[in-house]
Structure formats: structure tokens, C-alpha cells
Amino acid sequence: MEAFDRVMAALKNERDELDRYPVMNSVATYTQEFMAKYDAAWPESHFDADKMVRLAAAAYEECGLDNASVPFDMLVEPEVLGAPIDFHEGKILWPSVTDYLAHKFEDVTIPDDLAHAGRIPVIVEAIKKLKEKYEGVLPINVYIDPPFTAISSYVVDSIEFLVSMKKAPEVVHGWMKGAVPMFKEICKIYEEAGADIITFHEMGASSDNISPKYFREFILPYNKEIVKDIKVPVIMNVCGLAMGIVGAMVETGATAVAIDERTKIANAKEERDAVNPNIPILGNLPAQTILFKGPLDKIKAAVQMVINAGIDIVAPGCDFWLQTPTEFLCAFVDAVKEVGKLK
What we know:
Layout: H1 3-11, H2 32-37, H3 44-47, H4 49-63, E1 68-70, H5 76-80, E2 85-86, E3 96-97, H6 120-134, E4 140-144, H7 147-155, H8 158-167, H9 169-193, E5 197-201, H10 212-218, H11 220-227, E6 234-238, H12 246-251, E7 256-259, H13 265-275, E8 281-285, H14 287-291, H15 296-308, E9 313-316, H16 326-339
Parallel strand pairs: 1-4, 4-5, 5-6, 6-7, 7-8, 8-9
Antiparallel strand pairs: 2-3
């Protein structure tokens, strides 16, 4: 069974069609070792579509991971909104915002031609090339930084934004309402380029950062508005504690939800079942403490543990740690192939 068919069947909750559990990562799938082997180091692979393609598919080519993912950072949408970015030329570091640029939505200008804004053209070219090479074989996942995370983490000072939710909620709603059309258009651009899956990497909205009440007020309605127009499967991903918000994640209309190790699978299933028991859950091996550190037997035991706990798609809790050894990622995939057989 090809990875494409396996993942798509799992996202549709067609368990009877599966040969084994899918093993994927809906967010970051790249490492420094992959960058070196595939001549696709940062920051060059942020701007070069061919390097982006090689790095996006490296985990599949090397280890058999069931998806490819682009882009490689959380700043594509903030950059489009005008945030100044440091890509750390000559270093392998996550891009970072050098300054917060706005206080309210009226402070930013959304480009008229989003298809040619920032790095979106590079991502589109990479999607098309990945699709040409892997169509029907490997699902192409594109993750976006949704409005709340993009704005609260990278466009507006985070403390200012969080305080505004309580003291000036109309300002926060103004940001969310104003940004929705842009995010709808970006998703449409990726979809038309050939993306098979779109993931909302909503890590700024974890229960570590905001209350479930605020998630429902400031995130749920706006993500729901964006999701309803997307035709491909959507994964709602929260790196960080998701207790109390899994139900709301399902209510966005997402095809699946992804959780990290701080959220127990049993609790996530209970919240999911109260809304829609047919929505698959991805997770939730610790990316930093298990996949990054090993050893091999501990990785296999962790895979068995999440399967026994009732996960639907085996995945790390969040991004692969950049320094993760390829040996450990291959062991992760191999463990799922061994203990996750369904036929």
C-alpha cells in the first residue's frame, strides 16, 4: 500500500482499508542530517524550490515516513503581513522575527497579489514539483501558521496581544476578522498548486498559553471560517497542552487533530468523542525526549504505547528536533511497520 493511500484512508477513518498504521508528521519533518545529505541546508532551502523539494521528501526517501511537508518554518504568513525576518545567513537556525511591527490590524497591509508575496511562490513551485514526482505515492502536506499563532507570536508583541484578549477583545477580534480572507486565499493557492493536506500549526493557542474559553472565542470561529472552504483534508495541530480544547479543535471542521505528549490520548479521545468520534487523532510520541534521544528500544516501546492507547495515526507530538539522528527516525518508522500492522 502506498503512503498516499494509507494516509488518505486513515484521514477518512477508513480503518478497514489500512495495511498498517500510518506514520507521519504533519509539521516539521527535516533535520540537520537530511540537510547535509540532500544539499538542502538552511537558509537556502527556504528560497530554492529544488532544495525545498529534496528536504521535504528526505524523511520519506531515507526512512519511509508517510508524508512530505513544506515549508520549513512558522514565519511565511507573518512575513507576508510585513514582519521583518532574520534567516540567519550561514547558520542552521530557525528564522526569527527581528521586531514586532503592529498594534492593530489597520497597521498592516495585505498584498493584493498573495500568490507572489513573500516566499509563497517558492512554496507553490515546490508543491508542484513534489506533486509531479510523488503523485499517488506520497501525500504532500503544507502547514500554515493560522491567524492567531501568526499574529500573536510574530506580528504583535505576545504579551500585548494576550493582555488585549482580556482588556481590549475588540482589537483581537479585529485582527482575526481582518486576517481571515488572507489565510483563505493562501490555502486556496496551496490547494490549487497540488497540496494533498493542509495543516494548521496552531501552537500559539495551546492551553499552556491561553484558556479553553479564549480558544473558543478568538480561534474556533475564525479557523472554522477558513477550514470550511478548503477541499483537501485539514489537520488541526496544537503543539503544547491541548486539554480542554480538543473538542473545539474538532469543531473547526478539521479532518483530523494532532496532539503532543502533554495531552493524554485517552483524554483527547474523550473530548473528541463528545463532538465527533469519527475524527482521527495523530500523536503523540515526544519528539525531543524520545525521538531525539532514543535509544532504539525506547522508541519502539513508545510506538507500542501510543498504539495501545488508541491513537489513529502515529506521529511525533511536534516538529522533529533538528539534531535528531536519522537512525532514530528510521527506527521510529520501522517500529510502526512492525508493531502497527493491521493486515
